[in-house]
Amino acid sequence: MSNESLANLLKEERRFAPPADLAANANVTAEAYEQAKADRLGFWAEQARRLTWAKEPTETLDWSNPPFAKWFKDGELNVAYNCVDRHVEAGHGDRVAIHFEGEPGDSRTITYAQLKDEVSQAANALLELGVRKGDRVAIYMPMIPETAVAMLACARIGAAHSVVFGGFSADALATRIQDADAKVVITADGGYRRGKPSALKPAVDEAADRADTVRHVLVVRRTGQDVAWTEGRDLWWHEAVGRQSTEHTPEAFEAEQPLFILYTSGTTGKPKGILHTSGGFLTQTAYTHWAVFDLKPETDVFWCTADVGWVTGHSYIVYGPLANGATQVMYEGTPDTPHQGRFWEIVQKYGVTILYTAPTAIRTFMKWGDDIPAKFDLSSLRVLGSVGEPINPEAWIWYRKNIGADRTPVVDTWWQTETGGIMVSPLPGVTGAKPGSAQTPLPGIAATVVDDEAREVSAGGGGYLVLTEPWPAMLRTIWGDDQRYIDTYWSRFEGKYFAGDGAKKDDDGDIWLLGRVDDVMLVSGHNISTTEVESALVSHPSVAEAAVVGAADETTGQAIVAFVILRGTAAETEQLVAELRDHVGATLGPIAKPKRILPVNELPKTRSGKIMRRLLRDVAENRQLGDVTTLTDSTVMDLIQAKLPQAP
Ligand code: 6R9
């Protein structure tokens, strides 16, 4: 075994300096940290000037009633105007806003001028349907340009959108429509996934029957499949939007005007409707998109592979990039349709320069093999980003080497639906990067690690990630439930935002995220993070991906159970399983040796790429499976359960 594959989180010592040319021309230099430290609010007031305000704010932050923040409260702006019109007015109407690539291979190029027309038409259509400032609109769509147009049209008229993942059930959609009291739903007949049309409209029909708030359903024709039709309620997008004028004068709204609600699944209870507002959210998403990816809007081609139904799609497909006048790629489908090189084919086709994807995708590409990306010209890439989960050092290195030609910086960006924008991340032109660590709070962001008693840990210590000062894109509340907002985020540690993530600080004071707090196992009195054991497993050459859970155990309290996906050629033998256990023992210490290791073909994941450890725990503890509705593919659980009797 090579030294390299033995390296892991605890003793990860590889460092990657920014490339000299990137550092020399970087948007942000080390000075930004100093400047923001000296005057945090002044720093954010300056970032707010990236936006075009109808009325400039004079007050940066009102924190007189914590934890309810008001940012730029006397300022007024129109978010859609900032994302679209002003670029056209500045003479960039011909710049491509979106290169759309459909899964079947169809493509569309949309310039900023065209986007302005489409957003205006959609805004006029919503007005005609009676949608007004302050109303809510549910959006249940595939990854097509109309989804971004629909979101911007809501923003343009001051209505809040609530985007619900196209993969969610009718039941999940109905609950969200009801909770937000949405009167209009925007959907499509279907979208393309894994080579075939996948219907959306039936789920909307079912949900609208249950949620009696829905007055109209606007339907984009994407696949042409048959749809049931409710006269008087349902309207085709191409008719209702298509016949509208392309003129619409944007009205200015207060900075705290609700922009959207996005539901996150809590570990218990009903989903939380995370509320984001306008001025602060757009300031931070625009700033972070420009700073973390070193965006040069004239020359870069940005591609964020997330689904718009996830916060990453809101902040880094729609609002951040468009506020910055960026050119970006939007892809409808899955990475292996029609072949496993699809992502790299798209990078090559559009000359993508900045790629933002998730660790789960990276580990899948590792499993498929190095030869696949090697067939494509990826030389346009200059910055690579990761988001969604802790990225294992081995996956980080693989990404940099095989996708980034061992030349591009990798930025591991930590944030949440609740934070609205990136919070902890290296800067590509500044930070000496450490594989697997998100490292440093961005300029203007105050984050640290505290122990159980809320004391800040010193270098080398571990505990919980907290945010110690309000930030512009922070959630304002949980929709309709201020008390739950206080209880969930602001009660664990007084005056600090509790993120729910385990973290530690290394000897340099850099932050390492260790997964959700519920993902920390207690084995014979030792705290062991699932992330660390997973990283140790993935650092073995035979392992492509791993998910680790703590299962109740009579002797040790919890016992470590690992589910692993083996790399292409590795044979599933008892000898290999024993070797993997020893490998974890050698890397992290004997206490971290999994009691059981089960090779599987797939892991249960949500559509945003997070492993559903809760379900694996159910399996490991021989329990009936909990709710599987948010899984991308619920059949994987049957496969995994079928495996169990073979456990050693
Ligand atoms: C953006 C997004 C938030 C949770 C968060 C954490 C995990 C996201 C991460 C990361 C380690 C990173 N997470 N990015 N963990 N390193 N770079 O994913 O939002 O879907 O709300 O999830 O995701 O556990 O608390 P969301």
TrEMBL record:
Keywords: Acetylation, ATP-binding, Ligase, Magnesium, Metal-binding, Nucleotide-binding. CoA binds at residues 193-196, 312, 524. PROSITE patterns: AMP_BINDING. ATP binds at residues 388-390, 412-417, 501, 516. It catalyses: acetate + ATP + CoA = acetyl-CoA + AMP + diphosphate. Acetylated. Deacetylation by the SIR2-homolog deacetylase activates the enzyme. InterPro entries: Ac_CoA_lig (IPR011904), ACAS_N (IPR032387), AMP-bd_C (IPR025110), AMP-bd_C_sf (IPR045851), AMP-binding_CS (IPR020845), AMP-dep_synth/lig_dom (IPR000873), ANL_N_sf (IPR042099). Its EC number is 6.2.1.1. Residues 30-83 form the Acetyl-coenzyme A synthetase N-terminal domain. Its cofactor is Mg(2+). Residues 532-610 form the AMP-binding enzyme C-terminal domain. The modification N6-acetyllysine is found at residue 610. Transmembrane segments: none annotated. Residues 90-471 form the AMP-dependent synthetase/ligase domain. SUPFAM superfamilies: Acetyl-CoA synthetase-like. It holds the Pfam family AMP-binding. It is an enzyme of class 6 (ligase). Mg(2+) binds at residues 538, 540, 543. One of its GO terms (molecular function) is acetate-CoA ligase activity. CDD domains: ACS. Catalyzes the conversion of acetate into acetyl-CoA (AcCoA), an essential intermediate at the junction of anabolic and catabolic pathways. AcsA undergoes a two-step reaction. In the first half reaction, AcsA combines acetate with ATP to form acetyl-adenylate (AcAMP) intermediate. In the second half reaction, it can then transfer the acetyl group from AcAMP to the sulfhydryl group of CoA, forming the product AcCoA. Belongs to the ATP-dependent AMP-binding enzyme family. This is Acetyl-coenzyme A synthetase. It comes from Streptomyces cathayae.
